[in-house]
Amino acid sequence: MLKGFVGTVQRALINQRKCYASSSAVLARAYSTRPAADNRRLEIDTMSQEANRKINSVFAPPSVLANPMNVPVKLLMGPGPTNVSPRVMQASSNQMLGHMHAETFQIMDEIKAGLRYVFQTSNPWTLVVSGPGHLGMEAVLVNLLEPGDKVLIGINGLWGKRAVDLANKLGASPIPLEQETGKSISLDEIEQGLSKHKPKVLFLIHSESSSGVMQPLVGVGDLCRKHDCLFVVDTVASLGGVPFFMDDWNVDAVYTGSQKVIGAPPGLSPISFGPRAVEVIKTRKTLIKSYLLDMNELTIQWQCGDPSIPRIYHHTPPVNLFYALREALAELTEEGLENVWKRHAQAAARLHAGIHSLGLKLFVQDESDRLPTVTTILVPEGIDWKRVVQFLMEKHLIEIAGGLGPTVGKVFRIGLLGCNATPEKVDRVLQALKEGLEFAKLQGHL
Amino acid sequence: MLKGFVGTVQRALINQRKCYASSSAVLARAYSTRPAADNRRLEIDTMSQEANRKINSVFAPPSVLANPMNVPVKLLMGPGPTNVSPRVMQASSNQMLGHMHAETFQIMDEIKAGLRYVFQTSNPWTLVVSGPGHLGMEAVLVNLLEPGDKVLIGINGLWGKRAVDLANKLGASPIPLEQETGKSISLDEIEQGLSKHKPKVLFLIHSESSSGVMQPLVGVGDLCRKHDCLFVVDTVASLGGVPFFMDDWNVDAVYTGSQKVIGAPPGLSPISFGPRAVEVIKTRKTLIKSYLLDMNELTIQWQCGDPSIPRIYHHTPPVNLFYALREALAELTEEGLENVWKRHAQAAARLHAGIHSLGLKLFVQDESDRLPTVTTILVPEGIDWKRVVQFLMEKHLIEIAGGLGPTVGKVFRIGLLGCNATPEKVDRVLQALKEGLEFAKLQGHL
């Protein structure tokens, strides 16, 4: 094989002359790789002086990697990622399994069962996209939309805008259904949009984490059926933390992220398609503009259909993130979905009460629009929000976030996600926020 | 907030009547979520009988998740994922950090430095795509190709075919440059293809893991410059295990996977774009058909340009996979790239010698075409390859693979990747393979 390697280089050099593209740098480098791949003293001895010199000309290794990695343990009370439980952390450090091993298939089947429970659906096409929540958005739109298709997109913060950008990139025709940042969109406004534009897809953000708004969904699915439109929902920042019933609410496609309420590390996007969405995907006229996200292929590796149809290799997924997601779903299942909803509702109620007692105001005016999992708080007059956020991070290793997109500079954002939705964590972040505000008022130095 | 939640449901119900889409199931379900999100005994007492009944109608939790997760420790001697070192396993179990924290940026910068070293490039656009190697292929093609663009794709196994499929999905015009499975493509054949078709991009698979062929690359970049064509290379199964010099070989874009020689878990795709590729991306006429993969956006979060330009949030990446990749690159850097190349070459030489002494034949005839990291072995006459693979897995917890795509049923595939490219691992897999072949000959029962 070593002779083979040398042969490769030599043949390449001959070919190279043949094609008149000789480059002394390339020749030298090619030779210089010989001893690197060579354990025979003899050949090293017989190398040219130039080759010996060039050995040392491989780009030097970076010194920064000689330092120890620095990963402090922080309390993540921003809009995500959230902290993961010891059980989930432990799971992600298991040794790798092959993506086609029986144990991996078992874990994937358990994940599918857990996700059907969290989405409250019986959809066979309930699986995981091998990328962050953002890839879930891409997976839904790239599978459902064809060039020119009209998609009505609710916009009351950053994420609706992002979906419009993506729809444009895919050659679809997005129609913005705009609402003031900090408010939800009413059923009347939605029905007017459906009647006027007759879109193929309605896309709503259940949890607008940039503004802290929760979009009511009850009844929307029925409107979409009435107007022969697919109902797609982004639940990245809400799923598991608030009631969601995919089947009863007639949601045709939904996705979320692993790193929010579910409490796994970021990097996976759970997704589900109902029968009407599957039909649309199966009857497309144009090719799906992705291979990794092509549900016709991915659902075979996940065996979402007839269990007698064997799985076929599609891609190599992040298996140790699967371990973590499986354990996060197991913890959620043990606690029980209704109890997890209740815990997040109680934590949010405690946080909101504490915010008021600090003399602060919530950004979302209508109580019924407030997202329990991500709370937005108005930055008080004369306070530099950056100094407050910085104080919490530097003095307490606690993350809270500033605004995002349309709320930058206007709000603080506090997340209550997964294992951080507890009275103790709420009290810790309230105490730290109190100190941070005092620090910012005093204009002190960190 | 609880009142708010109830208000949401009630308003939804009112709206629902307004839109004539009343569904008793939806009403009941909506009510049934009240106590779930409600911690006040009073309200629970005042609920309707129906609501109390419906509480229990939330889809039941899946029992499979009550079982312990089963992740046996195996020796992964297939074409990947490979085993990860204890240091890398430990790294991936660190607590989460936010994607915009200083420590995360530090880790991302260290990863960029490590990747420039492994790719042997000084390209500023050297970063990581938040998905498996397959997403790296999509990232390269979706950024470089516009509708109708001609891309010449070398095909001598599965991966070239996959790239053709993807190019078609993206609306480009792939031109297959076909070669017999098990053989590499010569510089003459490449130049003929370039002269005849004048493609915008030449796409070659450096390491065709389905056939065990390594494509010689020296001189190809010069041909591409001569024919004003971008040179794109897939190094998923080879990078780090064999010499590769992105800059000296005039490679314009390259990607790999985290789970092969680099020795991190799967789920990340290191990628690098040279100046000519960046220019093509910057001067596109059409939008890039992805948001997550849009290098104009992603390179800002990775701060691939001027370090004085602040990072902007793009998406939430898999931070604990970053920890693992950072540590894997640190281990590789400590050992030294030339030493890692040499270790893989020596392990392959030892494996190939052992294969011959077992009376087996390698699938790739030309020594100089053999890929050190993935070895393909002809399945002997009268041997059921599945029984051999099954024997190794069940009796030794050792993974070797059968063929893939065009080599299914014809070959065994043994990978020597990262920490498994050692004489000890080679001897273990050879001994197990010997026993597996004897078992298959004897037609014994497992």
Automatic annotation (TrEMBL), chains A, B:
It comes from the Eukaryota. InterPro entries: Aminotrans_V_dom, Aminotrans_V_PyrdxlP_BS, PyrdxlP-dep_Trfase, PyrdxlP-dep_Trfase_major, PyrdxlP-dep_Trfase_small. Keywords: Aminotransferase, Pyridoxal phosphate, Pyruvate, Transferase. GO terms for biological process: glycine biosynthetic process, by transamination of glyoxylate; glyoxylate catabolic process. Its cofactor is pyridoxal 5'-phosphate. It is an enzyme of class 2 (transferase). It catalyses: glyoxylate + L-alanine = glycine + pyruvate. Belongs to the class-V pyridoxal-phosphate-dependent aminotransferase family. This is alanine--glyoxylate transaminase. The lineage of its organism: Eukaryota, Metazoa, Ecdysozoa, Arthropoda, Hexapoda.
